[in-house]
Amino acid sequence: MKSKKNQVFYAIVVIILAILFAVYLFTISPLLSFFWFSGLFVGFILQKSRFCFVAALRDPYLIGGVDLTKAVLIALAITTIGFTIIKYWLVINNEPLIGLNYITPISLATVIGGFLFGIGMVLAGGCSSGTLMRVGEGFQLQLIVLIFFIIGSTLGAHDFGWWKNTLMSCNKTIFLPDFFGWLGALALQLSIIALLYIFISKWGDKNTGKY
Q1: Do 1 and 73 share a domain, yes or no?
Q2: What angle do CA 105, 110, 47 make, to 5 degrees?
Q3: What is the tens place of the pLDDT at every residue in 140-189?
Q4: Which of 3, 36, 43, 44 is nearest to 18 (CA)?
């Protein structure tokens, strides 16, 4: 049995190179340096937590595991609260509402895209974040997935205008605060997430024999 090689030296070299590259980016723009460290930090968390949206959606059906699903729901709840605070602050200060122009209608394109992407994620064994994480770990299959992920994203961006004009723009855009107010929209979304959390918890208890 081969003994594991000590990789501390390589880790130190990588850290030094990452810092030097951050310094170089800082000379161009401090924001680029911030983005660089943010990406490294998020990647480290994803790798250590094994966080993957595919596993979160797949595991409850295949093995009854719900831990990652709960983590995704908690992340969605935190994100919902955070973005609501940011956007509401912009509204009360008469600032432009960032991202409002990117709210698109729910249409057949949403269903088709979700179905195709869901199949692709399961066959590839990873979502976008999971694929990037596993490429960093040296998985050769995920490198192939990443290449075709880039190709598919490029083609999607190229043909987005057709999808928008054909399927998306013909439907009505729904912005929940317009219907329920900011507090009502926040309460509604958090309630839905809470119900899903309760459901998935019971699902996990049922499949692990805790009932």
Answers
A1: no
A2: 115
A3: 888 888 888 889 889 888 888 887 777 777 777 777 888 888 899 999 99
A4: 36
